[in-house]
Amino acid sequence: MKQPNIILIMTDQLRGDCLGYAGHPDVKTPYLDTLAAKGVSFDRAYSACPSCIAARAALHTGMEQSHHGRVGYEDNIPWNYSHTLAGELSKAGYYTQCVGKMHVHPLRNYLGFHNVELHDGYLHAARYGSVPYRESQFVADDYFYWLKQELGVTTDVTDTGIDCNSYLARPWMHEEKYHPTNWVTERSLDFLRRRDPRQPFFLMASYLRPHPPFDAPQYYFDLYKSKALQPPFVGDWETDEFLKRDGRIFDSKTGPLDPELVREAQIGYYACITHLDHQIGRLIMALVEQELYDDSVILFTADHGEELCDHHMFRKSRPYEGSCRIPLIISAGKNVLPLLKASETCHAVTELRDVMPTLLSIAGREIPDTVDGFNLLTLTENPKNSIRTWLHGEHSYGDFSNHWIVTETDKYIWHSQTGQEQYFCLENDPHELRDRIKDSDCRERVRILRGHLIESLKGRPEKFTDGEKLIAGRPYLPTLSSATAR
């Protein structure tokens, strides 16, 4: 059988629930809804280490975090892996192209891609201090180079005064065609124009938004600015201690104290999502018009979510659903994946490490033994099946460092610096509004999930466990020796 073309559409900081097909009451995503209607969507997909670098390490290597070595956020650690998604697909006869975000080190590390047209957003580590010339984002980033050529002056995504990690929002300052979301689509379309038609291709269209800055074009802000929006979720276990302390800081991890700024953040985030959806629509329509769609597989996902003021929190790295649950869709044209059950939702617990073995299987490539993830094709054929009973997630995050065990129905959280535990019954409490850690009828279930975490952490260099109990307060660095030794 002819190898299908593979399109991986990756987004940055998109929550698993902020999509029309996922039932969100406010956000409109007609093109992603179409992909879901023509494919299988996974509503229990997670990013086990939910921030940009660690999540992408899982995606590109198929490894779980203790094996790829990135358990938090740390820049300037070289990426040297023997097997990568693009590298294996290249060996399988695919021409491999990435457009957009890579967030690897060095910046122009191609990770096995034949070509990369790069835009990593705003990376502090690649801009300031003793950054080598070739590692400067002003030199290495193709979007910034293109934007300067187009406009005749050096301009930046933060020239409006909104930060790259902030809850502040305002419309894009230039014509829409200059927006980085449009650029990723435009360069992806140009790749389709100049590809070799005799060779199957792997295209990774890697979008920056809806990661801040929340700067969609004005049209998309106008869609939401007059709507009554669902307020953030706040549970019975919350404390406003950190909100009162940090809620006036523009790049706070808590989000804003001012409710009007909360609403503006929601408007900006939703505007970025619908703008992204429309640009993904352009890519899909081009595949149809160029008669490529029927012979292609499309996988859509994100690196992590966004708390968006749920639980008085903002950004990612947390163990809660807004931060760690992500969208995942596998869709296909009529000539490939004939057993795929269209318009089905799968409740199996899945993770970014599963993307690599799934796409390699689609390409007919043997899966390297370094891969920890599972091939999801069995779930596209029978969405009622499961592949794992539980998943261990974590993030080194200073005082907020955390580990968690999630299943199809519930979640156990251990805060590794304080020892605090939480337990949520996701089946009937999907927004984690009630912490049931002290409920007597949950005691045995908590014991079982705690045991899974102890098992996961045995042998880790941090010594989080002695094999019988969890030990709080251990030093917890963002990068393990399994990454730095490569």
TrEMBL record:
Pfam families: Sulfatase
Top-level taxon of origin: Bacteria
Keywords recorded for this protein, A-Z: Hydrolase, Metal-binding
SUPFAM superfamilies the UniProt entry points to: Alkaline phosphatase-like
Coiled-coil regions, chain positions: none
GO molecular function, one term: sulfuric ester hydrolase activity
Record-stated family: Belongs to the sulfatase family.
GO terms under cellular component: cytoplasm
Descriptive protein name: Sulfatase N-terminal domain-containing protein
InterPro entries documented for this protein: Alkaline_phosphatase_core_sf, Sulfatase_CS, Sulfatase_N
Family matches, as NCBIfam families: PRK13759.1
Occurrences of domain Sulfatase N-terminal (ranges): 4-364
